[in-house]
Amino acid sequence: MGTVFEVGAALLGACVGSFLNVVIWRLQQEDPRRRSLGGRSHCPHCGALIRWFDNVPVLSWLLLRARARCCGGRIAVRYPTVELLTAGLFWLLAAWPPFGSVVVAVPGGEAIDLTAAAAFALHALFLSFLVALSFIDFDTQLLPDVMTKPGMAIGLLAGLWPGLAGVLSNDPSTSVALRSLLASLAGLLVGGGVTWLIRAVGSAVFRREAMGFGDVKLMGMIGAFLGWQAALLTMFLGCVFGAVLGSVGALAGRGTVIPFGPYLAIGAVVAMFARGPILHFLFTTWPEWQRSNPTAPLWLAGFAVLSLFALFVLVRRGRRSG
Ligand SMILES: [Zn+2]
Question: What mean pLDDT do residues 37-43 have?
């Protein structure tokens, strides 16, 4: 049953990715009439209604050889990419759940663990938000409020289900629901607050925006879903990825504008799946190495400053409002 669940999760991810393509496309339209999410899919070239059998994730793109059936207009490779990416993330969530297995062994067979199933649904939603926001930010340098704000609210409310977002303290005198709600709230405040602080300092030092207020809200959302420890780890990983990939891009002579949101999203995904090993490395393996090497803290400080510097120089913000 475990394998069936993993395959099912990947198929669900492909369908969700197909819907995310619509979300990404419509949230970028300037005309508010084209932004409504109701109704069926239309061809972006000629406006013809797309029939269901031409709308099967990935498969239709391959069978149609990247051409629309109605008018022969090109279907960008972006569409199957988003579908495959979402399918892969959902599969990863099913195969390597950061919250415990959904399908558990019980005497005489297998059963569904309800809390793990709810956690799967919540994290799948979180991953969907990250995918959509990354592509929108990549295209437009904007992280729309219409996604980050509900994302923060959903992350907070999910805290009310004990065990979904972790608990803040082990004090048994307050209810588990309250402690887990507080864990989400702490994540939101720490994630948003730290990002706001870095943005303020960076803007003052470099006199230019490397992060916008949209990044602050995105990090608030990430913190509300994953808790404050993972939010800090996400910020750290986002800076490292931004600095490294930004440097590689600059050395390769690609002067394209790459916003910070996608790096934060990658950081959040890595923090979500590999929080344990990374924290073990940072706080156990690394300090041991430091004790035997007196210059190690200098290396670490130098690396952190260099990363932030590279980030602010390389990662540029275009227009930024929401
Ligand atoms: Zn068409």
Answer: 69
